[in-house]
Amino acid sequence: MDSLSFQTAKTTEDLQGILDLQQQNHLSTISAIENGFLFVKHDLETLIKMQSFAPQVICKDGEEVVAFTLSMTVDCKGDVPALIPMFDVFDQISFKGKKVSEFNYMVVGQVCVGQNHRGLGVFDNIYATYRETFKDAFDFAITEISTRNPRSIRAHSRIGFKEIHQYVDPTGEHWSIVVWDWDS
């Protein structure tokens, strides 16, 4: 853990490191979904645009990106077609008596910890960095997790995310929408 640094992405190489780790942990390339998986693949152009609105949070071991938590504002909601149904649901569901879309929220676009760095506290520490980075600018963090990914659901619950809604997207995938309320 001493060699790990938790920070925001600063270079194109950092963003490429996110893409490399994303590819290694994508649903299409892993052999066992019980270890967690990612649904969406981004491209460098999209990450650069996301980075222009909010920095991506990464964990590096030396120069290698070994974990990331993507930051996505509503400004990017049309840039990742697979996430449009999620943003549409945000327009319909409520949190604290208001529509989610009425808040100034940060979307966790994805979180991933590389295989060799799991079980070392990286998940908790990268989210601590995420919260510190965004808590003064956004009301809360929100994301969706496939219900086929219980490892991710448990990990998010452990650090304070609470489920506020479930839905089925147009492809038939079941999702749990969770919020990390930084005020509670």
Biggest sheet overview: 7 strands, mixed
Q: Which radius of gyration do the C-alpha atoms yield?
A: 15 Å
Q: Catalogue the unreliable spans.
A: none
Spatial strand sequence of the major β-sheet: 1-2-3-6-7-9-8
Helix count from the secondary structure assignment: 5
What does the model show?
29% of the residues lie in helices and 29% in strands. The two termini are 28 Å apart. The chain has a single domain, classed as Aminopeptidase (3-Layer(aba) Sandwich), CATH 3.40.630.30. The protein is of the alpha+beta class and 184 residues long. Strand 2 and strand 3 form a beta hairpin. It is built from five helices and nine strands. It has helices at residues 12-24, 44-53, 84-90, 122-134, 150-159, and strands spanning 4-8, 57-61, 64-72, 94-95, 98-99, 105-113, 140-146, 162-168, 174-181. The protein is globular, with a radius of gyration of 15 Å. It has a seven-stranded mixed sheet. Strands 4-5 form a two-stranded antiparallel ribbon. The mean pLDDT is 88.
